[in-house]
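Q: I have two molecules that I believe assemble together. Could you output structure tokens for the complex as a whole instead of separate predictions?
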Amino acid sequence: MNHTTTPWYRTADGHSLIRRSAIALLVVMFWWAILTHAQDVSQANNSNKSFSARTTHLLGFEGSLNNANGTLSIQGDSLQFQKDGKPAVQVPIASVENVSLGQQDKQVGGKAMTLGKAAAPFGGGRAVSLFAHKKYDTVALEYVDANGALHGALFQLNKGQGEALKNDLVAKGARVSKSDESGKQSKAEVSNENK
Amino acid sequence: MKISKGISLFGLAAVVLMMTIAAKCSTKPENSSNARWSVQVDRVDPGDVDLEPSFRIAIYESLLDELNKTKRFKQVFRDGDRSASEVSDLLILKTTVQKYTAGSETRRAVTTISGATKLTVGSQLVTRDGQVILERNFDGNVRFMGNNLRATHNLAHNVAKTIKQSRLQVLSQPAPAQSGEGSASSKRT
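A: Yes, here they are, computed for all two components at once.
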């Protein structure tokens, strides 16, 4: 009956648990640092890249179907929309006469969700509606074709992407109408006065 | 009994047939008399209304779409299209926004009775020299189902439907640009 008592911080073979934990913590922190650094680098690279994002084309972009999902990107001097597996449609950025941003609050879940809400008893569907919506950015473009004809196009992007697209387009030569800008300014002034 | 039943059925069939023929006859002249016109859709004038640019663009594009569907015009031109200048019988569709109530899809879904998107525009169909062919106000609303932009589609559908049903005859001599409340009354051919 020769019992040797081992303290809680030591294993049966005499190794220190504290030391092992410290090593494990260091390894985790090391990987965390590497991952964070990698993320920063990729973000920096992305900021140098031209805009590209998954969007929904709502209407108006010549040659694209309404309510089609695809990738909207800036390729050189053109704005391009490409639906998966279909040829891309391009418009020269110089022909864009106006870019304006908006926001939309849309229900998510599509028809299945709508049917589900309708079928829910005791008005439960209405409660679901409170949470089943998402905010999107909308980008409205006005551009002219080779014949001088005015076209309007609407795209729906994830929140925050609209501003990035607008900035990229303006940097590449797209115009923004003065009325839109002044309208925004006057709204801002009004809201400041209210504060 | 059998004979009277047969007669009444025959009478009913005859009435239905006559109504069908009458309906067809009434629509024929409208289609044939206006095939000479082409139309150019002007960009939408927001007027004094604080309308989102996306709505302005959606109205414009929906109008083009719906007018093309009516097949009442030889060609439908966009604003600024240079090839429209070569067309002799050209009508110009001018649209001015008069009222806009921003709605909310979520509020509609939750409450049913509130959150409607309402849109009212004044439309004028004029010839090149300013003669008014059609002048009327149109509504486009979304009250229950659908997203907010659907109001623009409904509005354009109403405009196109009215144009399709009208005879497109000259109403007045060259008129000044749409003048406030007075022009809001519906003049229709």
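A: One point stands out. The radius of gyration of chain B is 21 Å.
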